[in-house]
Prior knowledge:
The chain has eleven helices and eight strands. By secondary structure, it is of the alpha/beta class. An eight-stranded parallel beta barrel has the order 1-2-3-4-5-6-7-8, surrounded by eight helices. Helix 9 (187-196) links the parallel strand 6 (179-183) and strand 7 (201-205). Helix 5 (95-107) packs across helix 6. The longest helix is centred in the first third of the chain and has 17 residues, at 59-75. The structure holds 3-methyl-2-oxobutanoic acid (KIV). 3-methyl-2-oxobutanoic acid (KIV) binds next to strand 6.
Amino acid sequence: MNLHRLMQMHASGEKIAMLTAYDSTFAALADRAGVDSLLVGDSLGMVSQGQDSTLGVTLADMVYHTRSVVKGVQASENNAWIIADMPFGSYQVSKDQAMQSATQLLQAGAHMVKLEGGGWTHETVEFLSQRGVLVCAHLGLTPQTVFALGGYKVQGRDEQAAGILLKHATELEQAGACMLVLEMVPKDLAFKVTQALKSCATIGIGAGNVTSGQVLVMHDMLGAGIGKMPKFVRNFLQDHHSIEDAMRAYVSAVKEGSFPDNERHAW
Ligand code: KIV
């Protein structure tokens, strides 16, 4: 997998199937199952470390898990595109700090880094992009600011909030972001954003089946999530006998557009 192929998929409407991964075994399984991209998400703070938010995840944690995922993909055959999250506090201080953090993640083997938020972030994205760092942005429900957002809630519901999100998305594309995660936004807004962006693929999570691709937290799609699952999650393991088959079913469902189902998994 490479950026050119991902952009071709975005342009041609072929859906991009992404999953999170945190260790080498599951990364290798997902890669063998045909997942296009793996996100070493800072959701690992919740699913691996047992924290109640992503805020406690450090850059050292992200580097450690990125290395493990890279090893798993190298041991497999498909070479999924690897994105690593920049954790909270690793890019907010200055553009130089962001460059230093991104460097560590790229040195650990990531192909691209992801950071959250719109508005102020476009200068950081531009700074990184101009220096050869590929950036995935993240708008909508941004877990690193969950307390400021007042909880895990759908974002961009009213006209004003939707307009701001669309503006931030176009600014981030102009700044050089090549991918954009849209988390928990109404399907109509995800559609508008996806249509507006030419050189930036949108990856939805709780944003309907109108984006260039989909991502789910691996534990959630395997039915291993703890607590109440959000509406947009589907357990792919319940109808399959192995984890790899469940992942394969996820990839097929994303590619054929049957996941997410707009009635059950979107708002
Ligand atoms: O950290 C993560 O896993 C993420 C996804 C939920 C998009 O950011």
